[in-house]
Fold this protein.
Amino acid sequence: MAFNIESKHLGGEVVVVKPTLFADNRGFFSMLFHKETFGSLGLPTNFVQDNWSRSKKGVVRGLHFQWDPPMGKMMYVVRGKAFLVAVDIRKNSPTLGQHFSITISSDDPRLLWAPAGFARGFCALSDEVDLQYKCTGTYNPQCESAIRWNDPDIGIKWPVESPIMSDRDAAAQPLKAWLASPNSSHF
């Protein structure tokens, strides 16, 4: 099989997938998506948008999410090494406010699935990181937001103390503000 479920977290919603590498003296080949196999593993198969970001060491992006259309993301590092995070922001969830984090590199690849209702982000750990992610919803700037990367109520132990980040991400709302907003009822 081209993929194996390595582990499940936060009520089984966040999934770490290990792709099979077919290696020889030239390098390796691996699939990153296969509709029938993903479906048989209980993973999403309806991806509508692919995104690619490149970040310098010490950059933190996130914690981003979108409610309309709801957007889940399958994230993977194609070059470098990154610390990936998913936070449950679903108001009535038993794992609300809990997070899962994992370090993923292109040398030991994994895919991280986090469905809609989870805020996602990452920190670049190598000089440059290329991160790609498949999305289950198309981008809608009117219905997306972010949770503060260092919200003490979430308690993520980031591998950086003074990250490089956008002004927008640095000013993101705490989880409590999101939960008090009327939009939080979408999850």
The domain at 9-14+46-186 is CATH 2.60.120.10 (Jelly Rolls). The helical segments are 35-40, 167-170, 175-180. DSSP finds three helices and 13 strands in the chain.
